[in-house]
Here is the input.
Amino acid sequence: MSGLPWRGLLAGCFLLFFLIGILAANWVGQEKLLQYGMLNDYYVGQLAYAKLNMGEYFGYLLKRRMQVFGLAALFVYTRFGFVMLAGVIGWYAFSLGYLFVNALVSMKFQGMLLVLLSIFPQIIFYAASYFGLGKILFRKNIETAMPIGVQKTWKNPRLWILLSAVLCMAAGIWLEAYVNPMLLKSFIRRM
Here is the structure.
């Protein structure tokens, strides 16, 4: 698998499942999205004034996100790694596509901004962590990209990439738990 254009392959997987999410939301129909969608005015209005215990929320996110990430990290060392990594990326992409359509139907342009704000800034760190798993999976020449001090210290640079991916995931979870709710509340109050 080392000869494959792995970045393009994972990006293509993301785009395919994003499109499938958009098609699925359109297949459900506008009435169902308005009736059962989570982006209606009442629900979003409740978010602006909801009290959130940040520590418990962080613990909940840590458990949920690290379970999926941990499984993906274990599977990248097996022959089923591509299926697992493509599945995780595909699920995120499908959900995002579905949410975008739901946001457009329910709240128009403000809904799109709300969805974009709900995934920012943690999405940068989540993408970096799964990118690191992709680098491990497709066995790119990691040794040349390692800092000189790290090359001498670590015998297996894939462990360094894995540690970096875990730290990126933890940073993303922290941002999602502590920074993102503040950004969302301030945006919703201004709507």
